[in-house]
Amino acid sequence: MAEQVITGYKRWLEGIGEQGVFFKNFSRNIFRGGFEWSEFVRQCYEIGYRSMMLVGITSFIMGMVLILQLRPAMLEMGAESILPKTLAVSFVREIGPVIIAIICAGKVASGIGAELGSMKVTEQIDAMEVSGANPLQYLVVTRILATSLMIPLLTVIGDAIGLFGGYLALNFTDDISFSLYFHKCIASLEFIDLFPALIKTVFFGFAIGFVGCYKGYNSNKGTESVGLAANSAVVTASLWIFVIDAVAVQITSLLFYR
To answer: Transmembrane ranges (predicted)?
Structure first.
């Protein structure tokens, strides 16, 4: 039993070391000449545009559900007038970024892990190295930068759609105009609600891209390793999202709520 624990601990330390080396190689290749702009734009399209429908539908439903869940409690306290403010602050500050990041972790991280894992299995990455190409710059840098850019944009779009879904749900039971609803939502948001939420989505996107690329790029030979890389990428990226969110909440509380 003790030997198994020690072996697992050693593997964990080896994994951290390998991720550190992978991050160093990624950082080194960002500033090298010959950046693959065409591949970067393609990845932005694949990650951003192709995820927009899923993000929009999920955000819309979440906005409606939150209003429907909050309204009975607010009615009991006679505070139904602050429903738009409650939804806006909770959705923009916490619920929207985390839910959208989790969705993208399931879709994007698994896709990147499976794609790079299949390239590793079929020795396409080895062929790129032999031919003199730089697979890290072409495959890894473009994908990590694309996720770091597109996840914040998807979050902003998802927040807007979620608030609109909340308006439709509230308008089913309460007669509130579109302009009044969004005026209350926007008036309730402050700098400490928008800026920290947007910054942490950049780290969410980086974690999704980095984990997906690392798991796929370092997958073992064999067809089963592709599925393992995709599954491990989703689980690890989701865990990192919660860790980053917890750290971001603590930092925000120390900086803005003292």
So the answer is: 47-70, 91-112, 144-170, 191-217, 237-257
